[in-house]
Design a protein that fits this description.
Helix content is 44%, strand content 19%. Helix 8 packs antiparallel against helix 9. It is built from nine helices and nine strands. The longest helix is centred in the C-terminal third of the chain and has 18 residues. The strands form two sheets. Strands 1, 2, 3, 4, 5, 6 and 7 form a seven-stranded mixed beta sheet that branches. It has a two-stranded antiparallel sheet with strand order 8-9. By secondary structure, it is of the alpha+beta class. A hairpin with a 4-residue loop joins strand 4 and strand 5. The protein folds into two domains: 148 residues, Beta Polymerase, domain 2; 77 residues.
């Protein structure tokens, strides 16, 4: 864990120095590392064990500065790994793997989205607008990083669990959503925010969320359904 976090910190620092970090949102399970800090080390928030780091590119067309992110990551010991089946490029280190994501446009597309200004590509996924539209910034170790609001993060976890092929990953998503969601309910500001974000979602997403929550967390189901 310590070595992985040191490497993540080095990545964030280099991206910040290159003035590209403001164009990215930390979107994967590593968000939970920062949520634990936000909630004063609350034990309900699962500790991170994953080696995968996901960065969301929320608005590729609005990136102003050209930065060779691939070269930057290579300088930190990451190798380029190209998947010839999917066309996706990810960056692999013995301690961590980095992949870039972006909201799928319309019905999506078969291949990845090219982010030419950053010399990377990104996988287009559904439900990523939740992580794009509800974000906040946090300063830690003198680095400013954008994160999804925890209330949006848990709803996203619930929705993507429907598409998980591996039961273990599905269960992990749902457990994280349950624990962090029930924690948010204990705080008036976070509880109100959770209800607000839920109410702004498409009705179809609301229905999908409630169907899953009814089985996973009756407490959260009742909280959002009322």
């Amino acid at each position: 864990m310590e070595e992985r976090y040191k490497l993540l910190l080095a990545v964030l620092s280099e991206l910040s120095n290159a003035e590209v970090l403001d164009d990215l949102v930390l979107a994967g399970s590593w968000c939970q590392f920062y949520y634990r800090i936000l909630f004063d080390e609350a034990p309900e928030i699962p500790l991170i064990r994953t080696t995968d780091i996901d960065f969301l590119v929320p608005n590729p067309s609005k990136i102003k500065k050209s930065v060779d992110v691939a070269k930057l990551l290579n300088s930190l010991g990451f190798d380029n790994e190209f998947n010839y089946q999917t066309g996706l490029l990810k960056f692999v280190h013995p301690d961590l793997e980095i992949q870039f994501l972006t909201p799928a446009l319309g019905r999506g597309k078969d291949g990845p989205y090219e982010i030419r200004k950053l010399n990377i590509n990104a996988e287009g996924l559904r439900y990523m607008t939740l992580l794009r539209d509800y974000i906040f910034h946090m300063i830690y170790n003198d680095i400013t990083i954008w994160l999804p609001e925890p209330e949006a993060y848990i709803i996203h976890k619930i929705l993507i669990s429907q598409n998980r092929k591996k039961i273990a990953k599905k269960d992990k998503d749902l457990m994280a959503a349950k624990n962090i969601g029930e924690l948010c309910m204990r705080f008036e500001n976070h509880g109100n925010r959770l209800k607000s974000i839920f109410s702004e979602m498409p009705k179809r997403w609301q229905k999908q969320t409630l169907v899953i929550l009814k089985k996973v967390s009756p407490e959260l189901y009742s909280f959002l359904h009322d």
